[in-house]
Amino acid sequence: MIDKKNIKDFFNLSFFVRLAVIVLVILLAVFLYHYGKQHTVYIDNRTIEIDGQSYKALDWAEVSVDGGDSQEYSPRTRREATVLRQKHSIHVVYEDEDFNQFEVDVEFKVPVNETQVVLSLPALVAGLGEDQFLTEFVPMAQQLGLNVGGGAAAADAEVPTEEDMFGDMSMDF
Amino acid sequence: MRKDIDIRKFLANNIVPIIFIVLCAVCIPLAGYSGQYLVSQIITRIMRNSFLVLSLLIPIMAGMGLNFGMTLGAMAGQIGIIFITAWNVVGIPGLLLAAIIATPIAALLGWFCGKMLNMAKGREMITSYMISFFMNGVYQLVVLYGMGPVIPLHSDQVILPRGYGVRNTIDLISVRQSVDNFWALTIGGVKIPLLTIILIALLCVVIIWFRKTKLGQDMRAVGQDMEVAREAGIKVERTRILAIVISTIFAAYGMILYLSNMGTLNTYNSHSQIGMFSIAALLVGGASVSRASIKNVFLGIILFHLMFILAPQAGRELMGQAQIGEFFRVFISYGVITLSLVLYEIRERREKAESAKAIAAQQKEAKA
């Protein structure tokens, strides 16, 4: 009986109000994470091989992301576009070998946890799926299996010292 | 005669701001900076530090003195900033997310600090100072060894190349001055960040409103006399803990604003002197251990930071070395805290002696 009363006292109106506020703040945090997350999209115009098939680099292309300024691409060009949030659109104008111009508009979604992705222009204009023209960015050193940042480099890296940890009044404020 | 006593009292109550006003008046012509430069620098520093210094007011109201434990809030704010930098969440949404992350950490640390201070009543300032050192060690442990393997953060921008631990310095370019630049005016070459001003004004209004609430009144009662407050049915310990929790959370928000204004996070020492600097600024404004107001905050920031700006240049002009001016400023910063604490103690003892004399006189009269 006493236990029941205690439970009733515990789950009173203020408990549910507090719970609702906590849930709202968590939802706000999730929203802010998605809304403010910045991604770097490397737009790549290089010949690429996907599932054994080769897609040749475009001879000339003009690309604009999310209606921004257009940039020209020649073969083997890679430029970066910094974007906020996940959903984006890309407008590509390109020429084939016979100088015929084509336009492609595609919408894509950057995976939320990927800070840097590579978008392959040849794969995009060939009409491949998002999972094929958009891939995770892996630094060249990592692709080649080089231990960049590890071993000697890590040993040389600036590691905090006691001076760093306990500052003095001479710092700026 | 009466006028003389009033002037003496005024001087005794405002000795610290008067010293600073005189020092600044001497240093301004020596430094030779233009008025526009000084105004622009002062505005930048008011925007950067007001939130931090305002966070000190509530514990003073609750009679807990100067909260050196605000460093705990600063650590919480820094942890929020580290997370959003690692996740690449930019701009104002990033700062809001940092504040959301920092809030529970600051509340938890504030609760812990409040509990400790309740066990050391009457020695709150030295206890909170030591707690900030103790928690600094815990912070170093978490940030230097926990981040990476235990707390999964994998950003190259944040984590050291060895795979664990946060870098000494983190560039906050993605959130730098995002609040200040969101809505700003330029008047006579001086940038006025309106959104930051609104945020600071809002905190001032909240503090004024808070004083009038039931909890605010309870805190004032606890600040005046704990035993009387307890007799009146106020939960003294709980009220004191809440004062520290609120102060720590405000300090966390203040640190986030401070770092976004600076644009760089020194992971291992940005927070370490924040408490000392904020307290020095408040004391320079004429506050004491038991009495502080919003006007003390702004006057203190203006005077204290004017010294920050002027001292190196004045030192260079006078002695040929900017470093001498810096030493002078450091000496003044610590000295002002010492002077305020000593003056407070003298005043307290004098008041006690006077009240004891009055009681003795009353008893004598009653006997006669």
Question: How is the secondary structure organized here?
Answer:
The complex is a heterodimer of chains A (173) and B (368).
Chain A: H1 2-10, H2 13-36, E1 38-45, E2 48-50, E3 53-55, E4 60-65, E5 71-73, E6 77-84, E7 87-95, E8 101-109, E9 116-120, H3 121-125, H4 130-133, E10 134-136, H5 140-143, H6 151-156, H7 162-165
Chain B: H1 2-13, H2 15-31, H3 35-54, H4 57-61, H5 70-87, H6 91-119, H7 124-146, E1 169-171, H8 178-182, E2 184-187, E3 190-193, H9 194-212, H10 214-224, H11 226-231, H12 236-262, E4 264-266, H13 274-284, H14 294-319, H15 322-367
Antiparallel strand pairs in B: 1-4, 2-3
Helix pairs in contact in B: 2-14, 3-9, 3-12, 3-14, 5-6, 5-7, 5-12, 6-7, 6-12, 10-12, 13-14, 13-15, 14-15
Keyword list:
heterodimer, A: 173 residues, alpha+beta, 2 domains, four-stranded mixed β-sheet, four-stranded antiparallel β-sheet, 7 helices, 10 strands, B: 368 residues, mainly alpha, ABC transporter involved in vitamin B12 uptake, BtuC, two-stranded antiparallel ribbon, globular
Describe the structure.
The complex is a heterodimer of chains A (173) and B (368). Chain A is of the alpha+beta class. In chain A, strand 7 (87-95) and strand 8 form a beta hairpin. Helices cover 32% and strands 33% of the residues of chain A. The model of chain A has no long low-confidence stretch (mean pLDDT 84). Chain B is mainly α and 368 residues long. Chain B has one domain (2-367): Orthogonal Bundle (ABC transporter involved in vitamin B12 uptake, BtuC). Chain B has 15 helices and four strands. Chain B has helices at 2-13, 15-31, 35-54, 57-61, 70-87, 91-119, 124-146, 178-182, 194-212, 214-224, 226-231, 236-262, 274-284, 294-319, 322-367, and strands at 169-171, 184-187, 190-193, 264-266. A two-stranded antiparallel sheet of chain B has the order 1-4. A two-stranded antiparallel ribbon of chain B has the order 2-3. In chain B, a hairpin with a 2-residue loop joins strand 2 (184-187) and strand 3. The interface between A and B is large, with 30 and 45 residues.
